[in-house]
Specification:
The complex is a heterodimer. Chain A has no helices and ten strands. By secondary structure, chain A is mainly β. The termini of chain A are far apart. In chain B, strands 1, 3, 4, 8, 9 and 10 form a six-stranded mixed β-sheet that branches. Classes of the chains: A mainly beta, B mainly beta.
């Protein structure tokens, strides 16, 4: 079946603009995760959704970052008033259920460049 | 949060066995240990997972000592295609329902396989 998809694959924006990144998880996966990966760095956990429960947003780096998920489907990560430090690859993953014990399936990522 | 520590990089010749160790001194009782592999410009993919003792699958083995404060990923007879970054992830399997959840990836170990 289809894997996790993300769009756009690349996004170039000017400092101060808002951007919206989209993630389509694997159908039937109740958990969805967002990560940030700066060039040459590891994965930085941002936020996770589990079903209809309220997400834990404590991993988001600032109040310019927000994320939403409709039920157990599409999620969007929004970055307002982008800064150059936001340049990174944003990875989305989904898993059948919540928990670090469950295999996460990652999308190809969205490469964000803030000029 | 159980933080993880891994070597930054490792080199190996083709055909050798490679062992990558991850330290997670503050691992909690409910935490599982999962290893992911990441190729350039791709999202990570699952390799193996364990809770204690030894786990083996078709691509790797995972050794976890009794105190669970570390784990070792073993790749038998590596080939050039095993050149990648390997991440150690520690997380629990609780479905909190409240959305309170965090994941900690290590910074990853860059494995370079030499012909």
């Amino acid at each position: 079946g289809a894997g996790v998809s993300q769009s756009p694959s690349n996004k170039v924006t000017e400092k101060g603009k808002d951007v919206e990144l989209r993630c389509d998880p694997i159908s039937g996966h109740t958990a969805l995760y967002w990560y940030r990966q700066r060039l040459g760095q590891g994965l930085e956990f941002l936020i996770y959704f589990q079903g209809n429960s309220a997400p834990d947003k404590s991993g988001l780096p600032s109040d310019r970052f927000s994320a939403e998920r409709t039920g157990e489907s599409v999620s969007t990560l929004t970055i307002q008033r982008t800064q150059q430090e936001d340049s990174a690859v944003y990875l989305c993953a989904s898993s059948l259920k919540a928990g670090g014990a469950d295999t996460q399936y990652f999308g190809p990522g969205t490469r964000l460049t803030v000029l | 949060l159980a933080k993880t520590t891994q070597p930054i990089s490792m080199d190996s010749y083709e055909g050798q066995e490679v062992n990558i160790t991850c330290s997670h001194n503050n691992i909690a009782t409910n935490d599982y240990i999962t290893w992911y592999q990441q190729f350039p410009s791709q999202g990570p993919r699952f390799i193996i997972q364990g809770y204690k003792t030894k786990v083996t699958n078709e691509v790797a083995s995972l050794f976890i000592p009794a105190d669970r404060k570390s784990s070792t990923l073993s790749l038998p007879r590596v080939s050039l295609s095993d050149t990648a970054v390997y991440y150690c992830l520690v997380g629990d399997d609780r479905d909190s329902g409240a959305g309170s959840y965090q994941l900690t990836f290590g910074k990853g170990t860059k494995l370079s396989v030499i012909p």
